Amino acid sequence: MCDGQLFRGTETEFWVNSDGKTGGVDSEFGRDAWNYSKTHYIIRKFMDENLTKSWSDKGKQPWVYCRLAEIYLNYAEAMYHCGKEDVAREYVNYIRKRARGEEKIFYLM
Questions:
Q1: pLDDT tens digits along 20-55
Q2: Are 27 and 36 in contact (CB under 8 A)?
Q3: What is the pLDDT of residue 10?
Q4: 3-class DSSP state of 96
Q5: Cα separations (Å) of 33 from 4, 8, 24, 26?
Q6: Largest alpha-carbon pair distance within the chain?
Q7: Region 13-23: what's the mean pLDDT?
Q8: Start-to-end Cα distance in the chain
Q9: Ramachandran region of residue 20, left (φ > 0), alpha (ψ -120 to 50) or beta?
Q10: What pLDDT is recorded for position 92?
Q11: What predicted TM-score, i.e. pTM, was given to this entire model?
């Protein structure tokens, strides 16, 4: 999300004034200055907009910590540095096949 988008029925305010000392409520000069985004962008994906009490309401949506493709790329890189280029290539190809819809599930061996 960025400045001006609606979230929980309110327009986000990440803007900063030209004086560099004041700004919108969601900026480093807003009411929750300790919790602001340095880039002035925030994550909206996986956020439940029906939860209004941020300290007590808990969401039930899943959170993706690490994508399977990232695990495979890390493994492929490790295998390459261990001198097992054939295994590294195999796992990179798993990602390619999965992206094309050719394969569904893979396991690290």
A1: 888 888 888 887 777 778 887 887 777 777 777 766
A2: yes
A3: 84
A4: helix
A5: 18, 19, 10, 8
A6: 57
A7: 88
A8: 39
A9: left
A10: 94
A11: 0.47
Angle between helices 68-81 and 85-99 (to 10 degrees): 160
**φ and ψ at 6, to 5 degrees?**
-80, 135
What tens digit of pLDDT does each residue of 60-92 get? 777 777 888 899 999 999 999 999 999 999 999
Instruction: Using DSSP, state whether 6 is helix, strand or coil.
Output: strand
**Chain centroid to CA 84:** 31
Q: Point out which residues pair with 10 in neighbouring strands.
A: 7
For 26, 63, 75, 83, 90, the CA distances from 106, given in Å and listed in that order, are 42, 21, 13, 22, 11
Distance CA 109, CA 103 (A): 16
DSSP state of 34: G
Q: Is 40 helix (H, G, I), strand (E, B) or coil?
A: coil
Q: How far apart are CA 53 and CA 56, in angstroms?
A: 6
